[in-house]
Amino acid sequence: MEQDQKKLQGLSETLQKFQDDLQTAIEARQRLESQQAENKAVQKEFKGLAEDSDIYRLVGPVLLKQDKSEANSTVDGRLDFIGKEITRTETRIKEIQQGSEKKRVELIQLQQQMQMAAQGQVQS
Amino acid sequence: MSTQTQPRTGSNAQQQQALDISTLPVEQLSQLQQRLSQELEHLSNSHARLRAAQARFKDCIRSIKDGVQGKTAETPLLIPLTTSLYVPARPTKTGTVLVDVGTGYYVSKSTSAATTFYEGKVKDLDKNLSDIERAVGAKNGDLRVVEDVLRGKVLAEQQQAGQGGGGKDGEQGIPKGK
Hints:
The complex is a heterodimer. Chain A has 2 helices and 2 strands. Chain A has helices spanning 2-47, 68-123, and strands spanning 55-59, 62-66. In chain A, a hairpin with a 2-residue loop joins strand 1 and strand 2. In chain A, helix 1 (2-47) runs antiparallel to helix 2 (68-123). The longest helix of chain B has 54 residues, at 111-164.
């Protein structure tokens, strides 16, 4: 009986950990998505610019003038990276969800077992 | 901009709900109610933030109109160094402004091009705002339905408990029974 209690506690702790991990992963994905949206807006803005327009990049406290092609490739590179990160986070979220579902089933089974055992004791 | 994904997940939940809302036990219904209220709060917060952002862009348009366009290099301006400290200054270049296009990039634009840029931003936000408003309306409807069903269930349970005088919710029945 006591063993079961301990097991139950362990299970619910792992489940809680899964939930926390899921929460952080989802937050990370949301952050990535908003970064992606911002970079896409910048990319779109660059597309509509004339070849000779002045583009500056904020580096610390100073504005540095940058070539349009260079700025473009930087933003493209960022979008590429962010896209990859998003797929990575997606797979991680899926993994966590699967793991947490498995633990949940285990937990419910154990609870049912314990309930049955308790009922059996009351009856006998 | 992550708010754009919200309406989609919302309509998903809606579809699932439509199937079995009245068959759910009270406990799950109140969980659902709680979750819906949370989502609603999140949406309203996003809405408020978007509104604030839109107001900032509108401010930029107004500043260009009032402060830059039609002014010459002779016009003195007060430049804020902090929110409460200003220095008088004269623009060296009129007709062009430096616009923050996001992610640390600034582009030099003519005043009219800058106005077009900000107007585009305001219009984009308008679209997002109406999306969110629609989502809020739908969520509000969902929440009302869930609350109605929940109230009906609780009432029915109370009545049952009152008549039967037993069961685990039988506290109201006890005085009658004695």
